[in-house]
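Postdoc handover notes: sequence design on the structure in folder B. Input tokens:
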């Protein structure tokens, strides 16, 4: 059953948009909680990491759990042991941004013995425009692989189907149908569809009949 756990874990395939969702969730949590932390466990992709917006997180008084100093920009599989501090401090709301598919989720598995006793839920983000998760079978296999290496169970699916600035309503609707079919096959709840705020006007009709969360985009491509 999906509720509002203290610890939210965001997983998915490469390019699914996990980091954008993680950042938006952390800012949302900060609106109603004094202590919020986001843990950057993306040890796979060196280009889109929550640590890239560390100054904005600091401005919002959100703890960033990630390698510091020179290690912050190193293309190395480094995780910070500081995560234990916020996991076991019940005052904190925690967002964990996990690297792509099973390889990235391996880093998450080391916290299994801690997380299994805590109030957490793990969500899988679907971007139907990524080749391997463009089918129900691909989504199911990826979810199962992440669960196997992390030893944690997925609580719900999120549709974040997009093509960046070239996203169309057709992309979003196709992603919705795919995510819905996968949620039914996995017997997991469909949490919601996430859409960049720049597309709010053209998706008003869709949002009127679907559960939608609009996202600010913080991770930009070099040419944007």
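Designed sequence:
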């Amino acid at each position: 059953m999906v509720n509002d756990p203290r610890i939210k874990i965001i997983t998915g395939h490469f390019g699914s948009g996990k980091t954008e969702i993680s950042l938006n969730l952390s800012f949302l949590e900060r609106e109603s909680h004094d202590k919020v932390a986001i843990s950057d466990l993306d040890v796979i992709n060196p280009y889109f990491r929550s640590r890239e917006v560390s100054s904005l997180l600091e401005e919002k008084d959100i703890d960033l759990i990630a390698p510091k100093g020179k290690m912050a920009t190193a293309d190395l599989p480094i995780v910070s042991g500081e995560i234990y501090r916020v996991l076991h401090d019940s005052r904190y709301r925690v967002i964990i941004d996990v690297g792509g598919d099973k390889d990235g989720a391996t880093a998450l598995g080391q916290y299994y013995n801690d997380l299994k006793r805590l109030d957490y839920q793990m969500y899988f983000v679907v971007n139907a425009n990524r080749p391997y998760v463009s089918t129900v079978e691909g989504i199911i296999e990826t979810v199962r692989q992440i669960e196997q290496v992390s030893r944690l169970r997925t609580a719900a699916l999120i549709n974040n189907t997009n093509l960046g600035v070239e996203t169309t309503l057709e992309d979003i609707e196709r992603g919705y149908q795919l995510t819905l079919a996968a949620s039914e096959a996995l017997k997991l709840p469909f949490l919601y569809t996430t859409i960049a705020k720049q597309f709010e006007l053209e998706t008003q009709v869709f949002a009127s009949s679907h559960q939608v969360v609009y996202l600010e985009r913080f991770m930009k491509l070099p040419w944007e």
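Context for whoever picks this up: The beta strands are 7-12, 35-41, 63-65, 92-98, 120-126, 154-159, 190-196, 212-215. Don't rerun without checking with the PI first.
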